[in-house]
Design brief:
Elements lengths: L1 H22 L5 E6 L3 E2 L4 E7 L7 E8 L2 E7 L7 E5 L2 E7 L11 E13 L4 E13 L5 E4 L5 E3 L3 E9 L4 E6 L2 E4 L1 E2 L12 E7 L10 E6 L5 E5 L3 E3 L5 E6 L1 H14 L11 H24 L19 E4 L3 E7 L2 E8 L2 E4 L5 E3 L4 E8 L5 E8 L2 E8 L1 E2 L6 E2 L4 E4 L11 E7 L2 E3 L1 H5 L1 H15 L3 H8 L1
Parallel strand pairs: 2-9, 11-19, 20-22
Antiparallel strand pairs: 1-3, 3-7, 4-5, 4-8, 6-7, 8-9, 10-12, 12-16, 13-14, 13-17, 15-16, 17-18, 21-24, 22-23, 24-32, 25-31, 26-27, 26-30, 27-28, 28-32, 29-31, 32-33
Helix pairs in contact: 2-3
Amino acid sequence: MAKLIGLVVVLLIAAYATWHSAGTAPGPKITFLLPTGHIGQTGELALKVATPDGKLNSLDVSLEQGGKQMRLFDLANTEDAKVVHEHNNVQIGRSIGKRSMPQLEAGKARITVTASRPVLFGLREAMSSASREVDVDLSPPTLTVESKFHFINLGGSELVVYRVSPANAISGVRVADQEYPGFPASGARVSPADPGLRVAFFALLWNQDSQTPIELFAHDDVGNESRASFDHRVFPKKFRESRIALDDRFLGHVVPAILQKSTDLKVDNPTDYLSSFLRINNDLRHENNDTIRALARASEPKILWDGPFRQLVNTAVEGGFADQRTYAYQGRVVDHQVHLGFDLASVANAPVQAANIGRVAYAAWLGIYGNCVIVDHGMGVQSLYAHMSSIVVKPGAPVSTGQVLGYTGSTGLAGGDHLHFTMLLGGNPVTPIDWWSGKWVQDRILRKLQEASQDRLAMLRTWD
């Protein structure tokens, strides 16, 4: 009997010890991933909760501000959150900016997380908690226009100088759905360096209305955004119309060569030259232009060029910018496209010279453009040279004004030996006529940069 009583006592002691030990077991490990410091119109909550087998009894997340509690998450209500179970971890993510939580106000706030996990076969639970203080910032950046007299031709380019605060806000010019980034003015040789001063080149594309809204924009990393209008005047322009007669000789010249080089383009019947031409003139054209636009994102954040750009010497213009082209085959209209460049004809296999200082952004075959070189001149400004018979430069190489890039030819969608040349702004074709004009460069660009620079004499010397 005494042994039995002793055994019961031992068991009770062991049970108590187990129960007590379970009560002191560590709760789930809570790790804040986001936010790191502040939220605003947008913001993200990201948590990682680690527990054996990923089992949780409870997980509650709330935000407290000014004595008010706002529920962010609990296991019974997951509709606003993304929950991912991965081994021993549970990851939680959801939006916590003012756009998703209208009751948020500017100021301090605290995010608190409490979690529990089962222990001792679920008879007890181990709890833990963590909190993080965040700043709710709802102040949009400020924008101030510094330049004046902004005149832009339809299909042309312009420049605006402005100030943004805070200086790390993303900013630029928005023209309808097109955005052109602003760059630090120091990269345009404006001195002394001012962290908030920005320069942005922008365009009014050939197919945009003369009443298209043009405005500055700025937004920070938590979604606070501001806009500002600035004075500008648009000069409409009527573009030429032309008709191009397609024949079997031309189709037999261009279609097989392009299909051979453009292996990703699938056509129903490669021997049906007209049908294949239409795919090339539409689908491949769009793909090529997407490639061109992507190159603009890697443009140097400083001006590389110097003075007006140069038209290829001793050339006659055979096709103008934004010519509206109608294609006909055997008297039947089969397609419409817009020619977004200048066709410059000289002697066959003429040397193609760089229009200004820059760096080679692209030098290879490019579908409808054939052998093509794109030179980056900085701040989103680039020049394109197409249909060349050969290329003698490589991507990344610096080029000087007049340096030979290759030789004219008839590769791509070209019926004869010539150079297709255009200027690009943010990856969009703009008329080269502006950039070929020394008066335009001086008035539309250099004047504004000089006015923005406190050390104007030093700036003038850098452009001489």
